[in-house]
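User: Hey, my collaborator sent me this sequence without any context and asked if I could get a structure. I don't really work with proteins. Can you help?
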Amino acid sequence: MYIVEGNIGAGKSTFLTFLEQQLTNTSVILEPVYDWQNKVYGQSLLANFYQDPQRWAYTFETLTMMCRTKEHLAQQEQTEPNRIFERSLYSGHYCFAKNSFESGFMTPLEWELYANWFSFLIPTKCQPPKKSHKVTVKKK
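Assistant: No problem. I've predicted the 3D structure and written it out in structure-token form, which is a compact way to encode the shape of the chain:
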């Protein structure tokens, strides 16, 4: 299992879609942005978050953790070694959710609840990637 992390709009999805077309023995698992923005839950939680982050940060970050955890658990049951995730449980927690809390978009109680779920789910249920390769791509 490999993970591609990067800033919003850095080209992760484009790169991974191209990579999947070129490497037929590799599965690519893109972020489920469709689920977050196209009213799968009755409304766009991504749009809600951007419009009112103080109201929606906890809801949105909990949703993204739930989606990533479900996909991670499903993928760790696969035997195919070449799987590449767009973003991970770890950046969801340590980058996005923590930033929401530090920016004042989550209350201390909301952060504690989110962090407790993360602490329960991730180390006890989700196996970390076995290999660690850091590749930095610089734009020209």
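In plain terms: The beta strands are 2-4, 27-29, 83-86. You can pass these tokens on to your collaborator as they are.
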